[in-house]
């Protein structure tokens, strides 16, 4: 903790130099002589900024392991390969949010689909951390193929 100059009337820390050598508090709008300023204990607010790269990296590693794929090194930062997770069978873009909603744009889906080669399934994964829930978005053609394979496996059991 540190000591910081404060308003003698309201204790506000947001002070500005005013006319005739006086100080003015921006909180209570009172002006007072410089010698009346008080020193109060001040605890600075902690930075709310989070390292999103570290969180994204953990998510990508976890999802890559779950689908038997590999995390792409420096994904999204090189023009060569834009996928976060990829294997012979899948190309996945991973996103997460701490909020209750996520805005999904068609261009984001098209990027994953166009980067997929051969028989790779393009997947856009969205993780809602607050609700502990994840969803995968796949193109309609792939969805119907996966559905048919699921039905076929169900009949052969």
Could you list some keywords that capture this structure?
single chain, 157 residues, alpha+beta, Trna Endonuclease, Chain: A, domain 1, 2 domains, five-stranded mixed β-sheet, rod-shaped
Please tell me about this protein's structure.
- With 157 residues, this protein is an alpha+beta fold.
- It has 2 domains: 2-42, no CATH class; 52-155, 3-Layer(aba) Sandwich (Trna Endonuclease, Chain: A, domain 1), CATH 3.40.1350.10.
- 27% of the residues lie in helices and 29% in strands.
- The protein has 3 helices and 10 strands.
- The chain has helices spanning 52-67, 106-115, 140-155; strands spanning 2-6, 15-17, 22-25, 31-33, 38-42, 70-71, 85-86, 90-97, 121-128, 133-137.
- The strands form 3 sheets. The protein has a 5-stranded mixed β-sheet, with helices on both faces. It has a 3-stranded antiparallel β-sheet with strand order 2-3-4, with no helix packed on it. Strands 1-5 form a two-stranded antiparallel sheet.
- The longest helix is centred in the middle third of the chain and has 16 residues, at 52-67.
- The protein is rod-shaped and about 85 Å long.
- The termini are far apart.
- The model has no long low-confidence stretch (mean pLDDT 87).
